[in-house]
Amino acid sequence: MKNLLLSIQHLLAMYAGAIIVPIIVGKALGFSGEEIAYLVSIDIFMCGVATFLQVYKGIGIGLPVVLGCTFTAVTPMIMIGSKHGIDVLYGSLFASGIIIVLIAPFFSYLVKIFPPIVTGSVVTIIGITLMPVAMNNLAGGQGSKSYGDPLNIILGLMTLIIILVIHRLSSGFIRSIAILLGLVVGTIVASFFGLVDVSAVYNSNLFELPKPFRFGGFKFEIGSILLFVIVGIVSLIESTGVYHALSEITKTPIERKDISKGYRAEGIAIVLGSIFNAFPYTAYSQNVGLVSLSGVKSKNVMYGMVALLILAGSMPKFGALATIIPTPILGGAMIAMFGMVMAYGVKMLGAIDFTKQDNLLIIAVSVGVGLGITTVPGAFAKFGEDYAWLTQNGIVLGTLTAILLNLFFNGINNQQIEETMK
C-alpha cells in the first residue's frame, strides 16, 4: 500500500506538465476536443512506456528517472505542424529519435560543442518564444470571440496567483504539485462563469488502446528534422544533470555506458511517441525532489507509477478531463511554466564567466538573432523556401550562431564541458 501511495505521488508531481503540452499543441494546431483528449491520453500512456524504458536497466540507465514530454518542444511542434502539417511534424520527430539513438554512444563526446553558453542561449530563446502562447491563452485564445475579455484575464491571473501562493506557503510534495492545484481551483472557479464544457468527457470512450498513426503517416523535411534534433540534444543535456543527481541520491555509481543507455532510452521513447502521435520526452527534475524527500529509491515505486500511467492513458475519459480546463486558466499557469523554461536558460548561463566580453557577445548575438528571426520570420524570406529551415527558424539559426561563435571565441573549453556534464 505504501508503494502504491508513493507511485501516485510521483504521478501527481509530473501530471500537470504531462497534460498541458498536448493541450497547448492540440489547441494551437486546431484539433477537435476529441482529438485533444486522445493527445492527452496517448501522452500519459507514452510517459509510462518511456519511464519504463529508462528505469529498466536492460534498456535505460536503471535509475528512478521519470520521463515526460518536454516544454522545449512546444514551439517547434506548433511551428512545424502549422507550416508543414501533422505528417511532417511526426515524421520529423521519428527521424530525430532515430538520430538520437544513433548518437547516444558518442554524445558524451559531441557534448563538447554544446557547453552551457550554447544550451543556455538556446533554452532562453525557446522560453521567450513560448511566452506569446501563454499571453494569447491568458486573453482567451487567439481568434476567440472573447479574446481580451477582462474576465479571461482576471481568471488567468487568479490562477497564476493561486500557484504562487501555494508555492510560497507550502513545501515538499504540495509545492511540487502547485501548478496542478492551481489548474484545479482555477477550473472550479471558471465553472461558475459558464466557461467549463464537459461534453468531451461524456463523448469520449471509457477504454481505448492507443492507435499508431492516428493522425496520418510520416513525411520528412530536413529543417524540421534538424530542429527536433536540436531540441533532443538540449533535452539530453538536461537529463544528464538528472542522471547525476539521482546517482548521488540513490548511491548508485554510473559510468559513461550507463549514461549512453539513458540517452538511448530517450531516443527510443521519441521514436515510439512519434508512431503513436505523442511527444518528445526528457527526464523530469520535479520527480527527483520526491525521491530525495521520500527517501524511497525502490524501482517498484517507479514500476507502479508506470502501470498507473499506462492504465490512465488507456482511458480517454480520464484524458478528456484535462480538456475541460478553460483557455484563460491554462494561460495563467503557462506564464509560470514557460517563464521557468526561460529562467532555467538564464540559470544555465549563470555558469558562464561574464567578465569575458567574448561570452557576452556570444549570448547577445545568438539570442538576438534567434529572437529576431522568431519575431520577424520574413526578414530573410528572399533567400527562398529551400533555405527556410534555416533562415526562417529562430531556434535553429540561434543555436547554430551560438555554436559557431563559441567555437570561434572559446574553442573547446574543458571547464565548460565539465560544467555541462554536472
UniProtKB/TrEMBL annotation:
Keyword Ligase attributed: no
Gene Ontology CC terms, in alphabetical order: plasma membrane
Record key words, sorted: Cell membrane, Membrane, Transmembrane, Transmembrane helix, Transport
Main subcellular localisation: membrane
Transmembrane segments: 12-30, 36-56, 63-82, 88-110, 117-135, 147-166, 178-202, 222-246, 267-284, 318-339, 360-381, 387-409
Protein topology in the membrane: Multi-pass membrane protein
Subcellular location: Cell membrane
The keyword Cell membrane is assigned to this record: yes
GO MF entries: xanthine transmembrane transporter activity
Protein family membership: Belongs to the nucleobase:cation symporter-2 (NCS2) (TC 2.A.40) family.
Name under which the protein is recorded: Purine permease
Species: Macrococcus brunensis
